[in-house]
Specification:
alpha+beta
Length: 905
């Protein structure tokens, strides 16, 4: 007796492209039926494939964030200096260096402490209910429990919680904008499509994270969790690297250079001293002084506060920056990849064109603006034909406009209601006067919608739809109207073949202008018609567009003057994208190149490595992966890329870009959490304002870095030269720390809070690899350092030789000479193009406050006994103050002379 082999369990995998197979084949492949799965099979499949959730990402712990702050070479050098001081018994010095370390660690920790919650936002999509048919019974379950093979029931308003192959539909329409970027809801049916059909055009599929805006449907789940399209986006989010901003890279390079220079200098000075017979302890103290002098301890404080102020200023201009260093990065932006809908456009469909039938052979055309017809256009909006068109558009309509409430419904139908209001049609009165007795919802097959209305003199039918479909259903044109009747529909002229060709040509011409075209028709009868789509009278065509934002053209012009390339990246069709690009001034010609997503991959893999895509201004029907590829393409060319987005599909690109810019009003939480900046007003012009602010911030950062380093180089040269010449140390480690953390920081901070130089948006973007300090800046730093050295050492040696100062008095004179010289040095940070008395430094009130505060602190350092004892200072006499005043002005006077003779830009 033989036993039958056990049957293999049903498959949990759908066909590779379920949109290409008949629905019954998909169900067979999944081992399910229209009755759905039973409870035991659901449990088995959940055990096999897991819950319908997206993979969680372990958040970065607070301990890890703290540890990250100690990975800097600068921090390591300061730690070594503190350890050496403690070893030799210099406890106060070690404590002071430790305080500096704690300050830097705290600043770094709190600036990096931002939760990366993009994946948490994605997972929220799973926490909604779903209606599922199991074992022949419909029930509501948590979306997490769905498995491949489940039969789900969809209704208007539902959030779709898995990828679904549709089995049955009834007027089903789905909003896929968050996933595909498509600006209007799309119609769905159960018919198969070709394998290469883009996601946005797979009519028989609906996807996790989208929502039903109209109709009903039944479908079979083909993918759950990470296997869904949104799951693939989630995976892209995990693999998309969070780019270090240019400022972070530049400051890190600067720190490495400083550490290398300090180590070389310290070794050279110490070796020279030891060979010259100096004591080991003295050489170690000198090495610590050099290390402390070379490192601008105040730089993190000043950079953080300056960036934070820039962040607040951007917030006042509706740009919320989530990452401090992103403030500066905006100033280096050379490419802005922007979405179309809602960023360049209003994200609100608007009726802009009417072409209406008349008694004459040539129909009349009306062009509309937001507040009425274009001056000189005819006929006026009060003509009977226009009123008839508005009646049909408003009554053959499922949207709702309620005063004081958000509009409800399809954006196109909302636009039709607003058009009717523009014609001074009372919507409520129309619906009351012509109550609806039957509605035939829009159908993908007929491509039309009809509303049967009861009027005072019988019934009439209002129809709207695709022009070719409406024309086929019409037998006449509504060329003769009677304004005394409601609706004004009487008579009509036969719709000849010639006239049909004319209307088709007008339809194609309007479509070529980037308009979405609708045809309107109507008929009247004494009884309710059995066939609404027969014997109609053609009224005319409506052209709708999502209008460009009023401020976009000026913003794009400013980008072009500033050398910033603007690239449109949209999920819409190329023709629509080209129209909007022309309207906002992004391109000049109707045939500007627009790359379709289907062509993108092949061009990217071409022999030139996709370089031909560098200058393309428009990309349409692109996928999330292609957005990432486009960013990589520009970044590899050395460009700083800003990417805008609002949907789930934009999140990976927002994370990968140098600057991710999310929309605050219509943006999904996923996009906002992945971005570096959120626009509160969704306006492209706000991005440009943020770029301008970013450029100003970088100018200020460069100014205070130059200031701090020239001060520190002066300290290094003073200490190093004294050690090499066998002189007493003119500055002690604690005195240097005092200078770096007190008297250097406040002027530098004032520089960081200053206004920008004029015309910052008329220069091209900085190169991506341009360091914070250029060669000419380093020469200037070295020159100012030399001046500080001459003035400080000169004051110390002069005081000893001429006035017989004690060692403590001489050190105090050199300390105060260097300190006040650094205060006056802030005025040397002006632009060579400005005058010595009229510039952004002199007009900066923070500079004068900083000078006053630092003067008070320096006086306290020598006249408050406790502080003076810690710093080893003594109060100078009158001759000492005269020497300090004269010597400290030397760097300022020479610096101003040098700025005066430099050629102006």
């Amino acid at each position: 007796m033989t036993m039958d082999a056990p049957a293999s369990p049903p498959s949990t995998e759908a066909p590779e492209a379920p949109w290409t197979a008949p629905s019954e084949h998909v169900m067979t492949a999944l081992g399910t039926s229209r009755r759905g799965l039973d409870a035991a099979e659901v449990r088995r499949r959940r055990a096999a494939v897991g819950s319908n959730v997206l993979r969680e990402v372990e958040p970065v712990s607070l301990l890890t964030l703290v540890a990250n702050q100690f990975k800097s070479l600068v921090v390591a050098l300061l730690l070594a200096a503190a350890g050496v001081s403690l070893f030799f018994g210099d406890t106060i010095e070690a404590i002071a260096i430790g305080v500096v370390l704690l300050l830097n660690t705290g600043i770094g920790f709190f600036t990096e402490w931002r939760a990366v919650r993009s994946m948490e936002a994605l997972r929220e999509i799973g926490h909604v209910p779903a209606v599922v048919r199991r074992n022949g019974t419909e029930r509501q379950v948590r979306a997490e429990s769905l498995v491949p093979g489940d039969i789900v029931v969809l209704d208007e308003g539902d959030v779709i919680t898995a990828d679904v192959r549709l089995l049955d539909t009834s007027k089903l329409q789905v909003d896929e904008s968050a996933l595909t970027g498509e600006s209007v809801p799309v119609d769905k049916d159960e018919s198969v499509v070709e394998a290469e059909t883009p996601l946005a055009e797979r009519s028989c599929m609906v996807y996790k994270g989208t929502s039903v805006t109209r109709g009903t449907g039944v479908g079979v789940v083909v993918a759950t969790g990470m296997e869904t399209e949104i799951g693939e986006i989630s995976s892209l989010m995990e693999t998309a690297e969070q780019e270090s901003t240019p400022l972070e890279v530049r400051l890190d390079q600067l720190a490495r250079s400083l550490v290398a220079a300090v180590l070389v200098l310290t070794a050279a000075v110490s070796a020279t001293g030891l060979l010259g017979g100096r004591e080991l302890h003295l050489m170690i103290e000198t090495g610590i002084a050099l290390a402390v002098a070379a490192i601008p301890e105040g730089l993190p404080v000043v950079a953080t506060i300056a960036l934070a102020r820039g962040m607040r200023r951007m917030a006042r201009r509706n740009a919320l920056v989530r990452r401090l260093s992103s403030v500066e990065t905006l100033g280096a932006t050379s490419v802005i990849c922007t979405d179309k809908t809602g960023t360049l456009t209003e994200n609100a469909m608007t009726v802009t064109r009417l072409v209406l039938a008349t008694e004459d052979d040539a129909p009349v055309e009306v062009s509309l603006e937001d507040d009425g017809p274009v001056p000189g256009a005819a006929p006026s909006l009060s003509r009977p034909q226009t009123r008839l068109a508005a009646q049909v558009a408003s009554l053959c309509n499922a949207a709702q406009l309620q005063e004081g409430q958000p509009a409800l419904g399809d954006p196109m139908e909302i636009a039709l209601l607003r058009f009717a209001q523009q014609v001074d049609l009372d919507l409520a009165d129309q619906k009351a006067q012509f109550p609806e007795v039957q509605r035939v919802a829009f159908d993908r097959t007929t491509k039309m919608m009809a509303s049967v209305r009861r009027g005072p003199d019988g019934f009439w039918v209002a129809v709207k739809g695709a022009p070719e479909a409406v024309l086929d259903a019409c037998t006449a044109e509504a060329t003769s109207t009677d304004p005394t009747t409601e609706p004004p529909l009487n008579g009509g002229a036969p719709l000849t073949a010639e006239r049909r060709q004319y209307w088709q040509a007008r339809n194609e011409a309007l479509a070529a202008e980037g308009l979405r075209v609708l045809a309107l028709a109507a008929k009247s009868s004494s009884s309710a018609p059995a066939e609404p789509y027969e014997g109609l009278q053609f009224i005319g065509l409506l052209g709708l567009v999502d209008p460009p934002r009023s401020d976009v053209r000026a913003a794009i012009d400013e980008c072009q003057r500033a050398g910033i390339r603007v690239v449109m990246v949209t999920g819409d069709q190329p023709s629509t994208a080209q129209y909007v690009a022309r309207a906002v001034g992004l391109v000049d010609t109707p045939d500007a190149p627009a790359i379709h997503g289907q062509s993108f991959d092949a061009l990217l893999r071409s022999a030139d490595g996709g370089r031909q895509l560098h200058d393309v201004p428009i990309f349409a029907r692109v996928t999330p992966k292609q957005k990432l590829d486009l960013i990589d393409l520009h970044q590899e060319a050395g460009r700083i890329v800003a990417m805008t987005g609002d949907g789930v599909n934009d999140a990976p690109a927002l994370r990968s870009a140098d600057i991710g810019v999310a929309m605050g009003q219509r943006g999904t939480q996923v996009a906002q959490e992945a971005a570096d900046m959120v626009l509160q007003d969704d306006a492209f012009s706000t991005i440009v304002a943020a770029v301008e602010e970013g450029r100003a911030i970088f100018t200020n950062i460069r100014a205070f870095v130059r200031y701090l380093l020239s001060c520190n180089v002066g300290e290094v040269m003073v200490v190093g030269l004294a050690a090499l010449l066998g002189l007493p140390l003119p500055l002690l480690p604690l005195q240097i720390l005092f200078l770096n953390l007190v008297t250097d920081v406040f002027p530098a901070l004032a520089l960081g809070m200053g206004e920008a130089e004029t015309d910052v948006m008329k220069a091209p973007p900085r190169p991506a690899d341009e360091p914070v300090l250029m060669r000419e800046h380093w020469w200037g730093i070295a020159g100012y350092g030399t001046l500080f050295t001459v003035s400080a050492l000169g004051a110390m040696l002069g005081g000893r030789a001429w006035y017989g100062f004690s060692p403590e008095e001489a050190v105090t004179v050199s300390f105060l000479t260097l300190a006040f010289g650094q205060l006056w040095h802030v005025f040397n940070m002006r632009s060579p193009a400005s005058s010595w008395h009229d510039n952004v430094i002199v007009s900066n009130p923070f500079v004068w406050v900083a000078i006053g505060l630092c003067t008070a602190l320096l006086l306290a350092a020598v006249y408050v006994p406790v502080v003076a004892n810690v710093l080893s200072l003594v109060p100078p006499d009158r001759l000492g103050w005269l020497l300090i005043a004269g010597a400290s002005l030397l760097p300022l006077l020479v610096g101003q002379i040098g700025l005066g003779v430099r050629p102006r830009a």
